[in-house]
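The data are quoted verbatim for reference:
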Amino acid sequence: MSALWSVGAGLLLLLLWVRHRGLEAVLVHHRWVFVCFFLLPLSILFDIYYQLRAWAVWRLHSAPRQHAQRVRHIQEQVREWKKEGSRRYMCTGRPGWLTVSLRVGKYKKTHKNIMINLMDVLEVDSERQVVRVEPLVTMGQLTAYLNPMGWTIPVVPELDDLTVGGLIMGTGIESSSHIYGLFQHTCVAYELVLADGSLVRCSPTENSDLFYAVPWSCGTLGFLVAAEIKMVPAKKYVKIHYEPVRGLQKICEKFTEESKKKENSFVEGLMYSLDEAVIMTGVLTDEAEQSKINRIGNYYKPWFFKHVEKYLKADRTGVEYIPSRHYYHRHTRSIFWELQDIIPFGNNPVFRYLFGWMVPPKISLLKLTQGEAIRKLYEQHHVVQDMLVPIKSLEKSIQTFHVDLNVYPIWLCPFILPNNPGMVHPKGNEAELYVDIGAYGEPKSKQFEARASMRQMEKFVRSVHGFQMLYADCYMTREEFWDMFDGSLYHKLREEMNCKDAFPEVYDKICKAARH
């Protein structure tokens, strides 16, 4: 009873303090209070609900039967929209705050919301080595489903809450992408409900134009209702080698060298300053030295980027064996390194042991509760960007990031970009090795100004024939946007499939210049 009184008194004092300081002031300057006492417990409840739901669906084997019924309901909604006179654009009815993107989509309030409740794994075809899933299946859900069967997917983008639909309609990448390409390149078929309510399947050999146009289209060609993704055999561990490298030229040379080696299952770089980095290479294996196993995903373990930094500070190489699923989601607990700005003491051993099992808070809940003051603060003083550039331009690109942003750590992830039709492909006629440069955090550059600095970055990326991930804030004009991306196939299909009255153009959906 005394413990309950203590908790009650503590909560009362907290509420009085919040009332004294003002809720907005607490949310802006002491956000960790709100996150620790409210969002972390709420995130746990979210996880429990979805895990119980997934378990029930699996036990009842109900996903395939319900899938057909749900798709028919989507078709009925689209046909109803046509009967109403097609007066408004359509979009998915999923609330904007539920997406992992930090951008808040205001179009949800003005467009016709089509409810799409598709979040199940439908079929695992071991003979074809393909898994068929619905668009709201998350990466955490999918790896948890496949790994016990001895399978995984070739590209497992980092964060647990990333969805298959978001990774196809947007894009996704992982440290295995130097072999397999982006997430879209591991998909073998899509199923979509089009603007006329019809259900269409597309693949490289069936409705191939639509298959290649769907990635990066952000839901402006139709509603994705299922996808078939390649599977590869899973192994127990990733044998990972850490190598600190100093000097920008040496970092770029080492990273490029390792990215070209197909014997590396995984390649990743973390830059902690302009001339300090740790290059990591990994190989899948079923055997491990017991003394070198590091279950980095356990809640009490240090955040991965902090763990990696130890090798840089000690100036030594190292080898570890990380359980495969822990490796795939190694940046999840700290949301890369974003969580250190929200919970500054989050990597403290005491916090990790007592509360680490509740981390991370759901990104969707962070968005839902951020308020206008925090949103504006983040927009002006925070950057979350992934720029995809040819690896031959890596050194110049990092220098540009340093001058315009000066954000560290910087994430480096190589990927092979095939010369396929669609919005994103190399300039030449052959596949080319690219690198994702990820900048997440508060810019330290003295001349940083959100709009001007990002427009300067976008101009540079266009100049080297690179691409900007579309989940982030984009400041380009329409002409600049279509200079960066190849819209020829996309616009052709929008015309042929009567999309212009049904869905906004991708530029109007994601770019700030179009939304303001």
About this structure: The longest strand covers residues 237-246.
